[in-house]
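Intended use. Records like the one below are meant for learning the mapping from a protein sequence to its folded structure. Do not use them to infer anything beyond what is encoded.
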Amino acid sequence: MSSKCAIEGCGKNVLARRLCSQHYSRWYRNGDPLTVTLAPRGSTATFVRWLLSEAHVLPPTCILWPKPCPYPQARIDGQQVAVHRYICRAVNGPKPSPKHEVAHTCGRGEEGCVHPKHVIWATHAENMSHTVIHGTSLRGERTNFAKLNEAAVLAIRSTDEPADVVATRYNVSAHTIRTVRRRLTWRHLP
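Structure written out for the chain above:
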């Protein structure tokens, strides 16, 4: 009597760690039995073409580029292209307007997701709203140049002390304190 894979809806026989061979190999390669990471056979162009030809049967989980990199590049038909743009163009047609860019509906574009069903054309504003929804937007403490954190911003907004006094306490300029208080910066906080 063999047991079935622990992944819901799989139903295949277990190989190891309560996973079937397919889910076990995914877990072994990248630590997650649901994330598909495929190694290209031959050139990267061959891999991209295969990916597009198999788009209709791919699992709904992200397919990460085999070599970890944000927004991977490949040489296709003699040109260096951004893979996510190439795939989006192949699946969704040309850009609707020059203002459109590729947006990842999965929120894992920076991790190298190249799943054909996870890319769409969107305006910059729509793409930035996706980053907020997925929690990948660079605002507040996530930026490289932030000198304040959320707790400090909330404390600054709750005090009536002069801006220069508060600025000295947090080692920032009085102008920074005033922009925080007027909600010109850190607008996402109450």
